Amino acid sequence: MVYREFYDYVTENGKLLTFIDGLIGRKPVYLVKGYIVELDDGATKEDELVVYIYEGETGKTVYISPNIVRAQNLLGVKFFEEKCSKEILEKLLKEWKKNEKTT
Predict the structure, then answer these.
(1) What pTM was estimated for this model as a whole?
(2) Handedness of CA 83, 84, 85, 86 (dihedral sign)
(3) What's the CA gap between 46 and 40, in Å, rounded?
(4) What is the strand order of the sheet 50-55 is part of?
(5) pLDDT attached to residue 27
(6) Whole-angstrom Cα distance, residue 63 to residue 85?
(7) 21-80 pLDDT per residue, tens
(8) How many CA atoms lie within 13 A of 28 on its CB side?
(9) From CA 102, how far away is CA 5, in angstroms rounded?
């Protein structure tokens, strides 16, 4: 699935910036193609592998894990639901790979 492919692309092509503490363990944060990507090495479901994606220059949220959206919904919060689509990951991955071929 796209989650594993995206995770692998980021770990292979991104620059590891730091680790941040999460509820369950430390999560690696990468810089890749101008985006800040937080991953979850301890994910138990594939759709939990990618936690957040931010635009590096603006800090704008591009993607948020469906797992986080589910947790927010349990709390009665509707927040970033439009940002949890796997199509966002597919689009970014396609764009990044296309740019590699043209450079």
Answers:
(1) 0.88
(2) positive
(3) 10
(4) 15-21, 26-32, 35-39, 50-55, 61-64
(5) 94
(6) 8
(7) 877 789 999 999 999 999 998 888 998 999 999 999 999 999 999 888 887 778 887 767
(8) 16
(9) 21
Alpha-carbon span 19 to 29, nearest angstrom:
6
50/69 Cα distance (integer angstroms)? 13
Read off the tokens for 16.
């590891």
Cβ atoms of 54 and 60 within 8 Å: the answer is yes
pLDDT of 103: 45
How far, CA to CA in Å, does 63 sit from each of 55, 86, 88, 102?
10, 9, 7, 25
In 3-state terms, the chain is what percent helix, strand and coil (to 5)?
45, 30, 30
Compute CA distances 42 → 28, 33, 50, 75, whole Å. 10, 24, 11, 23
Q: Taking 50 as the threshold, does the pLDDT of residue 83 lie above it?
A: yes
